[in-house]
Each structure stands twice: as C-alpha cells, then as structure tokens.
Amino acid sequence: MASGYEASSRLTAFGNQLIEVHIWLRELLAELRDNVDAYYAGDGLPPRDLRVHCLAFCTALTRHHSGEDGGAFPVIADEFPELRQVITELKTDHNRIDWILANLEGLLRELPAEPDPATATRVRAELEGLSAIMETHFTYEEKKLVSVLNSLDLPDWRKDRPAFLLSDQDA
C-alpha cells in the first residue's frame, strides 16, 4: 500500500515535470541569447558553433511543443473538455513560436564571419520576440495545465515519458 506521500508524489509528477522542462528551455534560450551577444561583441562563438547551439535549442523547443500537440493536449482535451479553448490558444502560440524559430534559424544560417550591426539588430529582435512569447506562453500554460497534469495518472507516461516532458537529461 502506498503512503500518502508516495501517492501525492505520483499525482503531482507530470505538472512538476512540465515546470522543470520550461525552466530548462528558458535556460537554453538565455544561454543562446548570451552567446549571440558575445558573438556580436566580437568575443563569442564562431558562427558555425552559434548555429549548432541554436539548432539544439530549436530542436528541444520543437520536440516539447510537438509532444504537447500530439500527446498531452489530446489527452487533456478528452479528460477536461472545458480546457479545449485553452488548448487551441496554446497550439496557436506553438505556430507563432515555430514561425519565429524558422526566422531565427534563417538569420543564423546566414551569419557573416564578422559580426555586423544590421544582422545583430535582426537577430536580437527575433530573440526578443521569441523570449517574450515563450515567457507568456509558459506562464499561461503552467497556470492553466499544471494542476490538470498533476491530476492525471497515465501508466504509459510513467513507463515511457512523453516528448513534452523530456529535457537534455532524458533525450
């Protein structure tokens, strides 16, 4: 028989894991922004390494959102029909974020060997936009879905953690 603590830990795991993944993604974005600033200051990573860092971040964020869209959101919508509008709004955010990520990847793919102010302005604007929408999105998602995720008991998710709950330690 499980103790009250074990039962409580079991019930809160998915919501807590979501918050942990969001913290990790925020940290990756902050590191990318720092690396971009260092590059434009003339003492950062070479363009190729900066592109690799961007690709790793973009892949992690895309994996997280694809996992939500294809896995978590349908489950939540079925179990909590009153949250379907929230799910629609979150998916709309995912599309906006994908658009910004594509712009950012394109800009970083074309980075000149020597930093220039015009490119710096465009790259920083994309990063600022991405940061703003991610923060708003994560805060809204956590407010609306953490308690719902904490109430779910899905043995399949416990055996094989879904993509939206994976971080670099799990990948």
TrEMBL record:
<feature type="domain" description="Hemerythrin-like">
    <location>
        <begin position="18"/>
        <end position="147"/>
    </location>
</feature>
<dbReference type="InterPro" id="IPR012312">
    <property type="entry name" value="Hemerythrin-like"/>
</dbReference>
<dbReference type="Pfam" id="PF01814">
    <property type="entry name" value="Hemerythrin"/>
</dbReference>
<protein>
    <recommendedName>
        <fullName>Hemerythrin-like domain-containing protein</fullName>
    </recommendedName>
</protein>
<dbReference type="InterPro" id="IPR053206">
    <property type="entry name" value="Dimeric_xanthone_biosynth"/>
</dbReference>
